[in-house]
Amino acid sequence: MKPSTPKGTRDFSPEEMVKRNFIFDNIKQVFQLYGYLQIETPAMENLSTLMGNYGEEGDKLIFKILNSGEYLLGIDEKLLNINNSKILTNTISEKALKYDLTVPFARYVVQHQNEITFPFKRYQIQPVWRADRPQKGRYREFYQCDADVIGSNSLLNEVELVQIIDRVFTGFNLPVTIKINNRKILSGIAEIIGEQDKIINITVAIDKLDKIGVDGVNKELQENGLSVSAIEKLQPLIAFTGTTSDKLNFLKQLLSNSEVGKKGIEEIEYIFNTVSKTSNIKAILECDITLARGLNYYTGAIFEVKANTGTLSSSICGGGRYDDLTDIFGLPNISGVGISFGADRIYDVLEEMNLYPASVAASTKILFVCLGENEQQYSLPLLTQLRDAGINAEMYPDANAKIKKQMSYASAKKTPYVVLVGNDEMKSGKLTVKNMQSGEQQKIDMADIISMLK
User: Fold this and answer.
1) In a domain, 259, yes or no
2) pTM given for the model
3) Can you tell me the distance from the alpha carbon of 111 to that of 269, in angstroms, rounded to the nearest whole number?
4) Three-class SS state of 5
């Protein structure tokens, strides 16, 4: 049988892991810069923790884990014959792989509330799993890099998250657009078209606008029971274009009779005004009144980030405000807001646009190429000096290998420098250092090598 990975999952080579760690390390550094603390939660959660928090479509994508042992033992035969997978799954599966990091974080907050100082700023960098259809930029196992603030209603948290997003992508030299909307605005729209009870159907459908187009959204809304007149009232909203100022003025007129809608406009204006006054951000900041974010738990500001270059059109970061997520675990009135970077999609964009620094490709900075065993013995203490100085260094282990083979090894690993050690170098103490990119060679002592590489 030919070995393979499950569909939608991947192995990562050493070269890929260097690039992935470049992404993780940069994001982690920015999170820490803003005072966020790291936690981790298990790969699996109780199924009851996850179900019901992602909408009907999201719940379908949760990977369920069969109970251990004879999981069908004692199951009523009627359950096996009624052809209802949902009922059967709940009987034979008590756990599931986590769908995202936010719901497990809410569970963590409630479980550890007496140990936490609020507002609590946490970050997580961990894999999540979704039974989605694999395609370019979309995988069944992927990493999320989340930052959340919980226990604070202040909109300064939203402002800070915009700054974090901008700083991360500026560090990657990747131009992006940060789109912002507010769920209260969407609730106001549902209110004025007379479909308050269909807010979830409206947001789920509008969230697919980029994928299925206006006709597809209208068809889905009709299938979900929205009246023809309500759908017609939505059309100016879906079709409206203009600057952020134009959009906000349009919304003020449209939602003049909706208190919740006006509150959403007030919040989004505060974010835009405060960011513009306090930050010199590089990203394009845009109000997108069709941005919905399909997850049910969002209640306020919502964010989505897309790269301005490359062919990948998917979101590479997203998030929003949630006011009552911890309530499902018995802790009401705790508001939170967070963002999630999609590390795998970011990887693909940086790869496509060739935005990784040249230094990222090489984990080893310098390799000792020795002409024999005596040269190896001579070089071992020098190798230790380099490592003590924090410089990644190694030696080709086979002293009898030809120089060509050793140099090919260095080239394959994209090692920037090699040290050639022979009899002359041992006598003089001057080591021959070759720049693998330019081919230039020079004879210098160890102190100069350390200085050059640091």
Assistant:
1) yes
2) 0.84
3) 35
4) coil
